[in-house]
C-alpha cells in the first residue's frame, strides 16, 4: 500500500485554534463537567426562523443559489445593517453571503495578502485570523493590548506601520472582541482609522457580536473609514444560528468583485434553505437578540462579581459573552497547566489565555453562554479549588 502521508505537502501551518479544540474535546469526555469553554449561545433559534427553513425545504429551494447569495438574503442584510447601524451597502453589488464569518475571514485575507505582506492584529484575539494569514505566507505582527485595557492604541499601531511601511496590508479589528468582551468607543475607532486613512491598508472589521453590546451603542470602524473596510457580520451569535453557517461580507463594489472570486472557488454558494432562514432573521428578527442580551448581561454580572471576589482580575465585558480573567497569585500561573489541573480536580473547563496570542499568558477565558445554575455551580467549584490549591 502506498504511504500517502509522506507525500503530503510539507510545512502546513498549524492552526492556532487547534489547542482550543483539543482541550474542548478532552473535557467533553470527562463526566460532570461545567463547561465555560463553549463559544456559542445556549438558546434555541427563534421559531419564526426555523419555520422559514422548513418552508424553504418544503418549497423545494434545494438548488444552487447565486454564488454571492440569494438576493432576498442580501437585501434583508443590507436593510438590517442600514437600520441598526447606519452602515450602507448595495445588496446587488456590495454583499456576499459566506459559510459563516470564518469563511469571510479566509476569503478576505486570501484576496488581499501575498507572501511577505504584513497583517497587524491586536491581541489577545481569537486566533483564526493568525492561522489564515500564516497559511498564505504573510507575516503576522501582534500588538499586545493587555497593558492598555485590551484596546488598541493608535500610537502603537503607528509604530508598526512606521517599521513595516508599505508591507502592511491588513489591520484586524473585531469588537466586541473574543476573548475579552471589550468594545471601543466611536471616537477611539476614529483615531485608529486616522492612522491608516489613505494608505493601501484594509481594515478587516469582524462585527459578529454587534447585537450583543451591553453598555453602549455599537461602534464601528466602518463609520470612520468606509472605503477601506471589509465588514463582516452574520446570524450565528445574535440569533443562536451557529449551525446554519451564514455570514455576510460587505465592501465597496470594486473590492467585493475581487472577494467574490475567492468565495466562488471556496464554497460556490451556501445552502439555499439556510440562506432563506438567515433572510428571515435579518428581515423579521431585528429585535430577536434583546431577550438573549438581557440574559447574557445578568450572567456576565454574576460571573464577573463571583470571579472578582475569588481574586481574579478581569476587565468587565461590554459585549459578546466572554470574561478574560487573570489567574490569582498563589496558583499555577502557566495557564495551560492551570487549565488542565482545574478540569481534573474541580471538573470545571475554561480556556487557556495563551491560546489567544500575545497578552493572553496567565489568563483564562470563561464563556457565560451557559445557564445561571451552571455559573453558580462553577464558581462554587472554583472557590473550593482555590482554597485547596493556593500557595501549594
Description:
The protein has 392 residues and is α/β, with parallel strands linked by helices. The protein has 2 domains: 4-44 and 289-389, Alpha-Beta Complex (Aspartate Aminotransferase, domain 1), CATH 3.90.1150.10; 63-284, Aspartate Aminotransferase, domain 2. It has helices at 18-28, 47-58, 71-85, 100-112, 128-136, 154-164, 186-196, 253-266, 272-284, 289-309, 335-346, 372-389; strands spanning 34-35, 95-98, 118-123, 139-144, 168-173, 202-206, 229-234, 247-250, 313-314, 322-326, 348-349, 351-352, 363-367. The protein has a 7-stranded mixed sheet, sandwiched between helices. A 4-stranded antiparallel sheet has the order 9-10-13-12. Helix 5 links the parallel strand 3 (118-123) and strand 4 (139-144). The longest helix has 21 residues, at 289-309.
* Overall morphology: globular
| Oligomer type | single chain
What is the alpha-carbon Rg in Å?
21 Å
- What is the mean pLDDT? 95
By CATH reckoning, the class of the largest domain would read Alpha Beta
- CATH homologous superfamily caption of the largest domain: Type I PLP-dependent aspartate aminotransferase-like (Major domain)
CATH architecture of the largest domain: 3-Layer(aba) Sandwich
How many E strands?
A: 13
Query: Number of helical runs?
Result: 12
Strand arrangement, major sheet:
2-8-7-6-5-3-4
Q: Give the terminus-to-terminus CA distance.
A: 53 Å
Q: Could you tell me the strand content as a percent range? A: 5-15%
Structure class: alpha/beta
> How many structural domains can be distinguished in the coordinates?
2
Q: In this structure, how is the largest beta sheet organized?
A: 7 strands, mixed
H/E element sequence? HEHHEHEHEHEHEEEHHHEEHEEEH
| Amount of helix | 40-55%
Reported by name, the CATH topology of the largest domain is Aspartate Aminotransferase, domain 2
Low-pLDDT parts are none
Enzyme class: transferase
Domain Aminotransferase class I/classII large: 32-382
Family: Belongs to the class-I pyridoxal-phosphate-dependent aminotransferase family.
Keywords: Aminotransferase, Pyridoxal phosphate, Transferase
